[in-house]
């Protein structure tokens, strides 16, 4: 009896919670033990760390060693940079990936103006490997974020960029960032781009619709975790939240690449590329992921300065890669209403890669394996 209460007392002295906010709103605070019980996919004393599992080499969208069409340079192939993975609405065993791919083999370093938006497909499950299928938007379009809007019966793809004629060598160009949206019923045929915001980047859309709330409202996060709202995907977007922490470059709360979602309890979350090691040490690794949360989308967001994930990835073959860069975090969730994260998708670059980059898919929690088994993979 006395011994059995010892572990909880020990935990209590290490980390205590009094509200679910101390569990990052990714779990519940147990009032008896003052400890957090994390939702599936989250771990750590404050549930602020992604429960990442071993990735499989050869999966994701990794085509740096291919020959790009009409290459201007070699060694970078069809480099890409982060994606949403999407389950086909008609064929549950077909997965799509929509990513930024750099034309003419120009690689990540010439993303402006060589970035395009392309779609890949996997017949072998959500982890891939994904094969190139379609160019959705030509140069220059970057940063695609694609979500299903149940209310509209449409896929919505938010992106930055405007059509440009790129130079005939892998040269960077200075261009202003403007967000547009295109829509599709099937991920294959798309509407023409409609401007959403000018002078803004890193779109993170989330349709608010749920089984309980038949709304067409869209919440749109952007750079610096600034948040906009629109009554419908093609309506006007208005500012609802700018954050109170220091969003300046080189501050300890410097972030980019937000990914926004609402959980099963109605709380809001952002996973971001956190640039703490650039601020503190002048390098892009290893601490690259932060998690922010709030009970109301326009309310009091909390930024816990603690890593949600880093640049170390373990693989099923027993190997490990410590990446030079890991950015553009996006989660694929279970579709059962639990909003359980099943995969983390990110843009990665290895050390000494000279502009070559690819898109990595890493399973999260026990849910990924269960999901794949359920689909027969
Ligand atoms: C990506 O491709 C490169 C080149 O073929 C290879 O060295 C690397 O291991 C691959 N990474 C993954 C995660 O598959
Ligand atoms: C890429 O192009 C080179 C030169 O044309 C050729 O030798 C090589 O086989 C090609 N590689 C692939 C993967 O197609
Ligand atoms: C590379 O991208 C081009 C489009 O630019 C596409 O035609 C080709 O199939 C892709 N190849 C691979 C192996 O991804
Ligand atoms: C439904 O969503 C709308 C738009 O976000 C919101 O204003 C409204 O309060 C929600 N209704 C309920 C019952 O949650
Ligand atoms: C925000 O961070 C920047 C970079 O570290 C710093 O120069 C600036 O003084 C900070 N601003 C405030 C209000 O703390
Ligand atoms: C915002 O949240 C923080 C952390 O939970 C809390 O300390 C602070 O009092 C809250 N501020 C407001 C205005 O509610
Ligand atoms: C990265 O995170 C994992 C899991 O939290 C941890 O085990 C590992 O030590 C971390 N690696 C680095 C380089 O910080
Ligand atoms: C990158 O290249 C430099 C210089 O060639 C070398 O010293 C370093 O070990 C390399 N780093 C990795 C991680 O391969
Ligand atoms: C092509 C285009 O519409 N570009 C606009 C992007 O947004 C900036 C403002 O930040 C405008 O100046 C550009 O004209």
From TrEMBL:
Q: Which residues form the signal peptide?
A: 1-15
Cystine residue pairs: 38-47
Q: Which residues form the EGF-like domain?
A: 13-48
Entries under PROSITE patterns matching the protein: EGF_1 (PS00022), EGF_2 (PS01186), EGF_3 (PS50026)
What keywords does the record list, in alphabetical order? Disulfide bond, EGF-like domain, Signal
Q: Which CDD domains match?
A: EGF_Lam (cd00055), GH43_62_32_68_117_130-like (cd08994)
List the protein's name.
Answer: EGF-like domain-containing protein
- Protein's organism: Massarina eburnea CBS 473.64
